[in-house]
Amino acid sequence: EAQVTQNPRYLITVTGKKLTVTCSQNMNHEYMSWYRQDPGLGLRQIYYSMNVEVTDKGDVPEGYKVSRKEKRNFPLILESPSPNQTSLYFCASRGQGDQPQHFGDGTRLSIL
Amino acid sequence: RKEVEQDPGPFNVPEGATVAFNCTYSNSASQSFFWYRQDCRKEPKLLMSVYSSGNEDGRFTAQLNRASQYISLLIRDSKLSDSATYLCVVNEGIWGGGKLIFGQGTELSVKP
Question: How far is B69 from chain A (nearest CA, A)?
Fold first, then answer.
């Protein structure tokens, strides 16, 4: 089954404790992205990747890092999480051209 | 000006009503367009792509006006299950790095 898998689905942690949210897709897609969604602000792109070893900042990259060492994986790293990073996060992937985007189920992060 | 703007919501309509959502985009070089549907706290899912000639899928009709940089979604004979947030999505194409831009979404609530 074609899918985008994120883990964990839920996480409560404390300020400053490094965390990684994993994202994996099995569709051989070139493009992968991370978004955060907050009430009243809609979906905002954090980082995206056009292919292996090619990443670029989205609209709200501050406080986040990503890597794309393999085509299927695109982890999101919070080196020193802060409460303002409490949010619902989505990973997504798509193929080239006009292909639609497939989303993971979401990760709800709470930073205390 | 926001890159993708949608009608503010929420739209509250009775079952059986016809409802129309509008969306405008600012980048005239945008290449492809989509409507996504998002249920509360879940991942966005593709509802339909939007083609230049307009397209229909059952009760849903999407239209694109490139000259006015305007996209619309029409839902006929609304069902309770249509209640969700509808997201307008624009692909800025190769010149925009293949970036997808999401509108903030319009919430629809269909009442019995």
Answer: 18
